[in-house]
Amino acid sequence: MNVKKLLIIIAFMVFVVAMALALYWVFFKGGTVGPGDANYDPGTIPPGGEGNVTVVSNVNAVINERLPIEDYFTGQISEVANGGFTNVNLLTDTAVSGLTTSPGGLQYYDKDKNQFFTINSLNQRELLTDKKFYNVSKVNWANSGDKAVLEYPDGRNIVYNFKTDKQVTLPAELQDFSFNHNSSKLIAEWINADGNEENNWIITVNDDGSGMQLIEPIGDEAGDVAVGFSPDNQVAALYRKYIDLQRQEVFPIGLNGENFSSFTVQGAGFTSEWSPDGESLVYSVHHESTDYLPNLWIAQGESGDLGNYRTSLNLATWPDKCTFSGSTTMYCAVPKGLPRGAGLYPEIANSYNDNFYTINLNTGAKTLIANPVGLSLGYSAHNLFVSDDGSLLYFTDQDGKLQSMRLN
To answer: With a cut of 50, which residues of the chain have pLDDT below it?
Structure first.
């Protein structure tokens, strides 16, 4: 036999034997990790001892159970928001939508049960009505809480009165509804069904479907119009127009052709919410100076001079992650560690847990009140509301489930 071939065969056999020894050492000869019991043969599973295993017999009744991992936070979790880890309580085990507060309490639509519920002062759920509403896609409540515009995927729109059990059908061309302060009139966008943008308007209509009036043509700029009554019922909508990539001009649109002064914001992506008294407008924009993260601002003044006084709150969040408690206090959920450019893609915030802050709108002072901890150990919050007595903060989490946190 060729000597070279013989050497190759011998080397291969040595390699095979070495690999076999290595595999044996790793999988069968490995040492014991930690203290063990040498009285059991290899391959035999020792019998279990008498452990303290909690058996849950009714899963639906324990939605507020806490996870074992929360033992890590033992002694650190507060039942009341005080600036650190704060306990959060799960109120519903299914997703909710159309969440709002009213004189009667918290109200929402349960997509699974196709019904409307209210949360009473004891955090107990009660039916708002026995009637079922199937496949509601959007709910727009009146301030009174006794009626709402229900929008359906097929374009149907109805105004339903929960007190009288009566409903009114509105034209399918209407979208983006908002009630005025006394809940008697609606404002909305009329988007022409034939695609003729010259017939797109901001309109008002009474809550019984009568008295429709044209307010302002919007053409192809519906995406830059945010309809919604100001609390004093003077402003019907806000229209934003880009000056350049880093600035926008915001125009308040009145109900009667008023020539309200516009104001310029330093940034793009303008979104806003009115304070309850209408003397402040909280808005966010993103700008290259903030790495295109959202930045929260407050503009103060009456409808005619809104925007003359503006202050940055230096919080990287959006108005729809905030809520007012009275006219001078605001609570906001602020995502932790947003990446550069998040202002361009607000949906990215759903992947980041929030801290909660309170803001004094008179001074602009902000205070961290809670790092929420609960079943999920972290939350991306939306639809924030404060209870009438100021003791609870409600919100929906990243899964749409309703949560609550004690404020005092």
So the answer is: 23, 26-64
